[in-house]
Amino acid sequence: RPPRKNPPPSPQKLPVIGNLHQIGSFPHLSLHSLSQAHGPLMLLHFAAAPVLIASSSAAARDIMKIHDLIFSNRPKSTICEKIMYGAKDVAFSPYGEYWRQMKSICVLQLLSNKRVQSFRDVREEETAHMIEKISGYGSYVVNLSELIVELTGDVVCRVALGRKYGGVGGGEGGGGRRGFKEVLGKFVELLGYFDIGDFAPWLKWVNRVNGVYGRAERLAKELDEFLEGVVEEHEGRERKGGERELDFVDVLLEVQRENVAGMPIHRDSVKALILDVFAAGTDTTSTALEWSMTELLKHPQAMKKLQAEVRRTTQHNQPITEDDLDQMPYLKAVIKETLRLHPPIPLLVPRESTKDVQVMGYDVAAGTRVVVNAWSIGRDPASWAEPEEFRPERFSNGLVDFRGQDFELIPFGAGRRGCPGIQFAAAVDELAIANLVHKFDFALPNGVELDVKEVAGLTVHKKLPLLLVATPWSC
Ligand code: HEM
């Protein structure tokens, strides 16, 4: 007789739907509560599909370090297949040789330190542009959330495509029939859609009837027309020659032309990689920035301390440049503390096991979907003293970092499938926060209270925009 299996603890499930009734509109909170009762490793069922939930740093380490190879697959997603050229991107492609080649292009060609550095001017110009816009408001109320979304959209657009496109921050150029910003918004929304058909294939008809799959197909066509235009424009410029800074489309066309990857790169792969940069890089970066500013507003002592550090570094009328950021350890601690309390993707991006494996002494079958609750891990009292408190000082010894080595802080995931955009995101966020708090003293408009409610989605950002009055710093 085969040995008896020892599965992880499971909350009671119902016929047909499994544990779906226990997941509310904020899945990271529902899963956190369930883990309080059933432990840091649980096996749930979404309809018939087994889903392993990890809610402690030890469980995350077992999955993303000890057994990283076995958990490096992504589960299939019908919507991603429809809008990402059949999952030809990096983030959603299954583990294997194709993913390995695409990830290496991402890490070595698009998001290397050197490449991220080459876009320093873009970040400094766009940050200065945001500061100028805020100055223009005088004593009127500024919607800082909107300006932050515009900043990250504009930076990613210029870095990836070479210029701003229609709607993203109001730049010129078109995005087909709808503005590019609008199309991108729909794209990110669809990525976060909970598709029951992925868990119970016999329910796929639901999304055919309610029109979600049809919407995804139309959106894919619209995005493809737009991206095809961008690629053709770049090819035209290539033929004309001339010196200019390479954007991501240029780099990918060069990789394709010179066979850098050692295998042919199809046109769809180029477009899928560009879409990944927008999908993974815009909403996440702006969410982190918005929460940092919110926590600083909520904690005036931390704001004062940061302003003192930043204002000590540079003269009153000079903008902060990236050279100044090395002298700002408290700024980096503020960003870490924000990402601990508000990981922009609280449940990370799902993984899937490719073999039977033991995790923390429990048996996990091949083909199990895995969700790591980074939100829960960031608030685990076993790792953090007074975990609900916003206290950047806890990082003052610089020992814990978010680069995937310290499993108590994993907003960017870890291991083979870990985020390749950490440097990129940190560069945008550090420069923006430093300049905002250097140039202005912020206050809430009269009679308005700071709201910290969240809105559900793939990324979890603030429900209500951050409305502030910004007074220029007078020393
Ligand atoms: C604060 C900002 C960001 C956060 C919180 C974030 C978070 C994440 C997370 C949690 C994952 C999944 C990791 C895993 O499975 O272990 C991921 C993957 C990924 N991220 Fe980021 N990310 C951010 C910014 C960016 C940026 C700016 C880019 C690109 C410009 C980027 C590109 C990617 C890509 C391509 C993947 C897929 C990697 C793979 O599947 O191998 N991310 N990110």
UniProtKB/TrEMBL annotation:
Pfam families: p450. CDD domains: CYP71-like. InterPro entries: Cyt_P450, Cyt_P450_CS, Cyt_P450_E_grp-I, Cyt_P450_sf. The keyword Signal applies. Keywords: Heme, Iron, Metal-binding, Monooxygenase, Oxidoreductase, Signal. SUPFAM superfamilies: Cytochrome P450. The keyword Iron applies. Heme binds at C419. Its cofactor is heme. One of its GO terms (molecular function) is iron ion binding. Belongs to the cytochrome P450 family. This is Uncharacterized protein. It comes from Rhododendron griersonianum.
